[in-house]
TrEMBL record:
It is found in: Cytoplasm. The lineage of its organism: Bacteria, Pseudomonadati, Pseudomonadota, Alphaproteobacteria, Hyphomicrobiales. Pathway: Purine metabolism; AMP biosynthesis via de novo pathway; AMP from IMP: step 1/2. The gene is purA. Keywords: Cytoplasm, GTP-binding, Ligase, Magnesium, Metal-binding, Nucleotide-binding, Purine biosynthesis. It comes from Rhizobium tropici. This is Adenylosuccinate synthetase. Mg(2+) binds at D13, G40. Plays an important role in the de novo pathway of purine nucleotide biosynthesis. Catalyzes the first committed step in the biosynthesis of AMP from IMP.
Length: 431
């Protein structure tokens, strides 16, 4: 028996929410360890859809859910998401939900800055296409050692100095951008207004998780975004502001790396990306439209259409290495139903030379051209398949080809948004 780390192996939206929900039946504790409410995780249970951004997906099953120190917490959003889940009948209390006291806060000034930068960059053509939720600015303040953290809300006497420090930085930026400065009182009021809603949940998460681990609990780490959005390993600068690779599960929860166990890379059977940045296999034709429509590829939080393309084995093969993936959960295979033929990108050409990896250089990433192999499609429907034997031979061939190209086996296969439409090949908790 082992713990399991779930990460996205592409550019996010691979179906992490569905798989975490499915796996959480077998888990005792579910932990978010990076990102914030830029995530949009969808679970469908008996036709009812739950959309989670900040809260761990395990809450829907009533499992102990933890927001680790690696997460950036928007307290306003927290209150709203708790309310939304309660309205759907999910119990959210400190019995089942804890927030690390050392997690940094996302405040209105972070959201403002994110939006102002994106607006300014739109005019100069250099925008990232962020979720505009203040994620980048909040992480900047964290590593800049001026963040206000969740636990600071419990110490009103130390807040004034922290507010001054944060405003010295932000007001200088705001002056430079020609917008009104933020007053001490406004920020103080904002912090005071959220404190009572957040403080009941704070905890020493590193200790709680250590105790749980010693008691034999199975811990499920829920990643957000995907490895190609990782701040180090992704398509920089078109990335998010946290590390999204599996190794972050340790630092972002307060457990050492030996606690991590099985790494499950959630992998869409094709590729999507939302926001700006390179996408070698992007399709602008009717096949891209098919993937978009049949796959319902629209961003959960921002409503933006997701860009779609063929499966890129180069990217996932790289993620298998950068995240130490043990096995993958292959999702949305059903979206490929009915296509005459399917292409898989197996390498790139860069300036006339063949390469088998994604180069780190931004300019080179923009120039690589995919090299495809072509496979025969299948006409049968795989929607809702729950057994390997329900899959057409060509679909099995596609899965086998993916495994071979990325160098990792399929542990789970997902064939619809519904929780139960999942084929188990290897139980990640059993290693
Ligand atoms: P996440 O961010 O990785 O949790 O993924 P999202 O929830 O943003 O996007 C995945 C979308 O695909 C959601 O709408 C899911 O309900 C849906 N989904 C997940 N698995 C499958 C699948 O196997 N087949 C189909 N058709 N949809 C799926
Ligand atoms: P889940 O967990 C897909 C993208 C944004 C943008 C870039 C930076 O649902 O897979 P940010 O707001 O994080 O500074 O934006 O990252 N992005 C995601 N794309 N799925 C996500 O989360 C994402 N979270 C951020 O679109 O390109
Ligand atoms: Mg998503």
């Amino acid at each position: 028996m082992t713990n399991v780390v779930v990460i996205g192996s592409q550019w996010g939206d691979e179906g992490k929410g569905k798989i975490v929900d499915w796996l959480s039946e077998r888990a005792d504790v579910i932990v978010r360890f990076q990102g914030g409410h830029n995530a949009g995780h969808t679970l469908v249970v008996d036709g009812v859809s739950y959309k989670l951004a900040l809260l761990p997906s395990g809450l829907v099953r009533g499992k102990l859910s933890v927001i680790g120190n690696g997460v950036v917490v928007d307290p306003h959003h927290f209150v709203a998401e708790v309310e939304k889940l309660r309205a759907q009948g999910v119990a959210v209390t400190p019995d089942v939900l804890r927030i690390a006291e050392n997690a940094p806060l996302i405040l209105s000034l972070h959201r403002d800055l994110d939006a102002m930068r994106e607006d300014a960059a739109s005019n100069s053509g250099t925008k990232i296409g962020t979720t505009r939720r203040g994620i980048g600015p909040a992480y900047e303040d964290k590593v800049g050692r001026r963040a206000i953290r969740v636990g600071d809300l419990a110490e009103p006497e130390t807040l004034p100095a922290k507010i001054d420090r944060l405003l010295t930085h932000h007001n200088a930026l705001r002056r430079g951008m020609g917008v009104d400065e933020i007053s001490f009182d406004a920020l103080h009021d904002e912090l005071s207004s959220v404190a009572e809603h957040v403080l009941p949940y704070i905890d020493q998460v590193w200790r709680l998780l250590d105790e749980q681990r010693k008691a034999g609990a199975r811990i499920l780490f829920e990643g957000a975004q995907g490895a190609l959005l990782d701040n180090d390993h992704g398509t920089y600068p078109f990335v998010t502001s946290s590390n999204t690779v599996a190794g972050q599960a340790a630092a972002g929860s307060g457990l050492g790396p030996t606690a991590l166990g099985y790494v499950l890379g959630i992998t869409k059977a094709y590729t999507t990306r939302v926001g700006e940045g390179p996408f070698p296999c992007e399709l602008h034709d009717e096949i891209g439209q098919h993937l978009s429509t049949v796959g319902r590829e629209v961003g959960v939080n921002t409503g933006r259409p997701r860009r779609c393309g063929w499966f890129d084995a180069v990217l996932v093969r790289q993620t298998v290495k950068t995240s130490g993936i043990t096995g993958i959960a292959l999702t949305k295979l059903d979206v490929l139903d009915g296509l005459d033929e399917l292409k898989i990108c197996v390498g790139y050409t860069l300036d006339g030379k063949e390469i088998d990896y994604l180069p780190a250089s931004q300019a080179a990433q923009a120039r690589v051209e995919p090299i495809y192999i072509t496979l025969e499609g299948w006409k049968e429907s795989t929607v809702g398949a729950r057994k390997w034997a329900d899959l057409p031979a060509q679909a099995i061939k596609y899965v086998r080809q993916v495994e071979e190209l990325i160098g990792a086996p399929v542990a789970l296969l997902s064939t619809s948004p519904e929780r139960e439409d999942t084929i188990l090949v290897t139980d990640p908790f059993e290693g």
